[in-house]
């Protein structure tokens, strides 16, 4: 999996490309653990090219969720494929995390 970071004024967009499983979760965890990520008001996660997410991948987001909330950084997922969204929904994570259909809605969230 590839993670591309696109910073702007107060928003960081992370573009996920590929499969987020136990072996690639380390790449995402490293990106989310960077201290400067807490300087942004929002972290938007573009999931358009995310074709699969495992429990390890979900665990990475969950492990950083409290840190983001404590720093008042909004984490927003968008462009999520239906099969990936279903994983979030089955586990009830759609109620815990902000998931919107498009980039426009993610920026407005």
From TrEMBL:
GO molecular function: anti-sigma factor antagonist activity
InterPro entries: Anti-sigma_ant, STAS_dom, STAS_dom_sf
Coiled-coil spans in chain: none
Pfam name, any one: STAS
Boundaries of every STAS domain copy: 1-109
PANTHER family (UniProt xref): ANTI-SIGMA FACTOR ANTAGONIST TM_1081-RELATED (PTHR33495:SF2), ANTI-SIGMA FACTOR ANTAGONIST TM_1081-RELATED-RELATED (PTHR33495)
Family note: Belongs to the anti-sigma-factor antagonist family.
The protein's name: Anti-sigma factor antagonist
Organism of provenance: Hymenobacter arizonensis
């Amino acid at each position: 999996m590839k993670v591309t970071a696109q910073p702007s004024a107060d928003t960081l967009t992370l573009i996920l490309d590929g499969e987020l499983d136990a072996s690639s979760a380390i790449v995402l965890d490293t990106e989310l653990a960077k201290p400067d990520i807490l300087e942004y008001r929002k972290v938007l996660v573009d999931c358009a090219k995310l074709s699969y997410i495992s429990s390890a991948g979900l665990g990475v987001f969950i492990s950083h969720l409290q840190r983001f909330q404590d720093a008042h950084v909004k984490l927003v997922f968008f462009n999520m494929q239906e099969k990936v969204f279903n994983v979030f929904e089955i586990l009830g994570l759609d109620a815990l995390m902000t998931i919107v259909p498009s980039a426009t809605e993610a920026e407005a969230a």
